[in-house]
Specification:
Helix content is 42%, strand content 24%. By secondary structure, it is of the alpha+beta class. Strand 1, helix 12 and strand 2 form a beta-alpha-beta unit.
């Protein structure tokens, strides 16, 4: 308390503060602000009045003025944890995120067991895209308040929100897992337990665990999503293979011989194929691995992948791919914005075959270099209909006599979906005719387009 010089002045200051607080409680924020500023001008109890004033200014949505009040308090008490926390929230409100993080981090350092401050730091970190750090702070806050439902929700939301939905159905895909494990066992039996294994796109670490269980003594895995990589490390340790499997939270293009790998890998296992083969920069990744990370005679799993498909008709899928007259208006021009690739789930959406199954594009993943390709494919039409495009799936060659495919007639529950590659517009076809299409890839996406006569 400041020495106000006389009992009367001290009494006046006390009364002024009591009046201001009463106005504040009654909801007269403007009147309370005037009162608080009068008290501060008298030099009375500034460290107690400034938080009241700053909070009031925040309620009035006067962020800059609130920030000035918090700064005024921090000029008096630089290590005031509450002021640093509230200043950080105000800075975040103003869009000054880097300063906000610094202020709240300082508050958390001064008050390390404050779950509110830790949780708010997590919120600000998440808003800047620093999801792994945010999740770690939410977990820390939850450990301090285990019954806090809000924190429990945030931990789950940020964990699941950063991980594509297909990871869990992919892990639960028993036929796919069995095929990969059979190939991995055969590879390690051929190359020996001392063969160095590289797992690119490790995800949960499942393929690395399969390799270790098959006898591999040294497995280096990489996963570019830090949150997933952290989970893979945890799973590896929980399953007792931390001494043989190392998980790096980075893409394979950032691995190097002599740092993450002590020598070129003898076996490559990878699970980065997307439903349409190429979307996840498959060719760039495999080429880089061949060039820098693999022994010349390295075993590659999978060693090849093909895009398979057939010509289809479907009223339901057509409504996702084309638009014409709507409510009496011609909206057909908007079809130019329709997705070229539409994920579908087996035969759960009705569609009709207009051709037999065909191999559209084949990738030999043991090759060191892949050029963009384009060729003509003549499709014999087997049924009359209005062709809207090609439904495409994958066939993966993992090892001699070991393969896997997600053929739509017998595969509906895994992580890989089928894909409708829609034509620019529907084409009427008749049984016995042929339809010529251009098939190939630009190294990033498949190209499946009808050819004009």
């Amino acid at each position: 308390m400041t020495d106000l010089g006389s009992p009367d002045r001290l009494s006046e200051a006390r009364a002024a503060l009591a009046d201001a607080m009463a106005l504040h409680e009654q909801g007269d924020l403007e009147g309370a602000e005037t009162g608080y500023r009068s008290v501060l001008a008298q030099g009375y109890r500034a460290t107690e009045v400034l938080p009241l004033l700053a909070g009031l200014l925040g309620r009035l949505t006067r962020a800059e003025d609130a920030l000035a009040a918090w700064d005024q308090l921090l000029a008096i008490e630089p290590d005031h944890a509450v002021a640093l926390h509230e200043k950080g929230l105000t800075l975040h409100w103003l869009g000054r995120t880097a300063e906000a993080i610094a202020a709240i981090e300082r508050a958390c350092m001064l008050d390390p067991d404050n779950p509110t401050a830790i949780g708010n730091l997590a919120v600000v970190l998440a808003d800047t895209g620093r999801n792994l750090e945010a999740l770690q702070h939410f977990r820390r806050a939850l450990a301090l308040q285990p019954d806090n439902l809000h924190l429990r929700h945030q931990v789950r939301r940020h964990g699941s929100g950063s991980v594509p939905f297909w990871h869990i159905p992919m892990m639960n895909d028993a036929p796919r897992n069995d095929a990969f494990e059979a190939a991995i066992k055969a590879a390690i039996s051929t190359a020996g337990a001392q063969a160095r294994v590289l797992d690119i796109g490790a995800g949960s670490g499942l393929l690395s665990l399969m390799a270790a269980r098959a006898g591999a003594q040294k497995v280096v895995a990489c996963e570019m999503e830090p949150m997933i990589a952290e989970m893979a490390q945890q799973i590896v340790a929980q399953n007792g293979y931390a001494d043989r499997i190392t998980v790096h939270a980075k893409p394979s293009t950032e691995l190097a011989i002599g740092t993450e790998l002590d020598a070129p890998a003898d076996i490559l296992v990878s699970e980065i194929l997307s439903s349409d083969l190429l979307t996840e920069k498959v060719l760039d990744t495999f080429e880089d691995a061949h060039r820098r990370l693999l022994a010349p005679d390295a075993i590659v799993i999978p060693r090849a992948a093909s895009a398979m498909g057939c010509l289809v008709a479907s009223k339901n899928l057509a409504d996702y791919s084309f638009v014409g007259e709507v409510s009496g208006f011609d909206l057909s021009a908007f079809t130019a914005f329709a997705p070229q690739r539409l994920p579908i789930h087996g035969t759960m959406t009705a569609w009709e075959r207009l051709s037999d199954d065909l191999e559209l594009v084949r990738l030999d993943l043991t090759q060191k270099k892949h050029d963009a390709v384009l060729a003509r494919l003549r499709i014999p039409v087997t049924a009359d209909g209005r062709a809207i495009g090609i439904v495409q799936w994958m066939h993966i060659d993992l090892w001699q006599d070991v393969s896997f495919d997600n053929h739509p007639d017998r595969y509906t529950d895994g992580g890989w979906l089928q894909v409708l590659h829609s034509f620019p517009e529907p084409i009427d076809v008749a049984a016995g005719e042929t339809l010529d299409i251009a098939v190939g890839h630009d190294r990033i996406t498949l190209i499946l387009l009808p050819l004009s006569e």
